[in-house]
Specification:
Strand content of chain B: 15-25%
Oligomer: heterodimer
Shape of chain A: flat
Strand content of chain A: 5-15%
Structural class of chain A: mainly alpha
Number of helices of chain B: 15
Largest sheet of chain B: 10 strands, mixed
Distance between the termini of chain B: 64 Å
Order of helices and strands of chain A: HHHEE
Number of domains of chain B: 3
Largest sheet of chain A: 2 strands, antiparallel
Number of strands of chain A: 2
Radius of gyration of chain B: 29 Å
Number of strands of chain B: 17
Shape of chain B: elongated
Largest interface: A-B, 37 and 55 residues
Structural class of chain B: alpha+beta
Helix content of chain B: 25-40%
Number of helices of chain A: 3
Radius of gyration of chain A: 22 Å
Amino acid sequence: MSLSQDDVKRIAALARIEIDDAQAQATQTQLNTIFDLIAAMQAVDTGGIAPMAHAQEVFQRLRDDAVTETDRHAVFQAIAPAVENGLYLVPKVIE
Amino acid sequence: MKWETVIGLEVHTQLATKSKIFSGSSTAFGAAPNTQASAVDIALPGVLPVLNRGAVECAIRFGLAIGANLNRVNVFDRKNYFYPDLPKGYQISQLARPIVEGGALKIVVPSTGSGQSEERTIHLTRAHLEEDAGKSLHEDFHGMTGIDLNRAGTPLLEIVSEPEMRSSAEAVAYARALHTLVTWIGICDGNMQEGSFRVDANVSVRPVGQAEFGTRREIKNLNSFRFLQQAIDYEVRWQIETLEDGGRIQQATVLFDPDTGETRMMRSKEEAHDYRYFPDPDLLPIRLDEGWIETVRANLPELPAAMQARFQNDYGVSAYDASVLTGTRALAEYFEAAARACGQGKLAANWVMGEFSAALNKAELDIAQSPVSAAQLGALIARIQDGTLSGKLAKQVFEGLWEGAGEVDAIIEARGLKQMSDSGELEKIIDEVLAANPKSVEEFRSGKDKAFNALVGQVMKASRGKANPAQVNELLKAKLQ
């Protein structure tokens, strides 16, 4: 499998990364190298092996349902670029 | 052409845990912005999620309640998309191996017109755990958007049905049954205004008899049963008109505008997100052990479907009445206590669904706040049954109970509401009425039946409503012959 220029531009758009044609070209080459590596791994016969969700054969530890956090918004908001009435302000995005 | 509607619902239920799904922040509604958003919730670099046992247990409860398969090993995935109220740039959700698969819910669709109500079983596809996003406030902050992350990380169970509903009435009946169930088993507070129970409807139409589904459009975020019904009805009309005019339906996501009653396109398939799901490396697979599942099963209350069947058997109420009476656990418990107190299931059902529910609605009270206890209502019904009270007098006693005027018998005594049982006294009243209304008597004798009703009315009035109407009829007839 190899990626087209259009694939690269679509992925960039999904990731909200602005790229020009030269960058798209370079990225396409790099990504295709990675896909070549994946293609080499595809040669391994994995028939009958259940896909793993995680590299280790261990399971998630669970936390008791209790409130342990306190209000620290003042500390967090001290590093935010814009804040008003306790809200983080971001450029307007409407769907 | 005859069209068939096909509907499937996706419901997001906020789980009633104290803390968030992956952090120890509070999930309480209505706090000041961002005061319940920890480092994990706002996605500061280097933080890791730790799964809340309570959220997993809610999902197990739900799976057991609908007879579903619980995946003993299930996995969290990342669903990637960019939006400012999703600070990580991905939502932790479950795609390939959700915690709950399959299961079914019995619904009772109210009759339209004179028909019988209809029972149906709706199958569920799956239910999976995920985290809620924050809230974007688009009011004017100097052209900026305000972000409140208090809701970010609130545990959700997304419950997906099969596309088995064929009308908006069925979709509403299913949504109501699901709402009843999740509040009944205590995994969700069910508050739709606060967004605890949000419905997305996938709607398509196809010519009757066609096997393949039509192209569907998804109506997002319906937060009332009325809007669900209105949105589906509008969408179905729109799709049929579009197809009959020779147009095509494009797969799309739409929003319902309650002010205009219309749906409008939010994004088309081409613009739809490509979520690039993959297993979340920050979370290990979840294992449900049998001991845990059995403990949860042992603690489940009697479920609405079982209770409906029991109410029909034990108290002789109809299937539809049984579904209304099990609308909430509190209502079901109230009904059963009243029915047991008086031993009159059907009468108790009529009173609970009629006078009692109307009084609660009018006063905008919950059952827990009712000034009339189930035992008092039962005592009142017992007095109807033994002939002390007519239905009309019973309503007056009920008003007295509601005002807190004391117990049933005391109110009957104090207000002189006992139905007249002495036929001598009643005969005396009838004689007086006949003497005072010679014209009506004349009319009746000359064949005007209406005149008889006028006389009954006069007798009831003279007895101040305390005469037994059946007895009045009988005695009056005898006297006029």
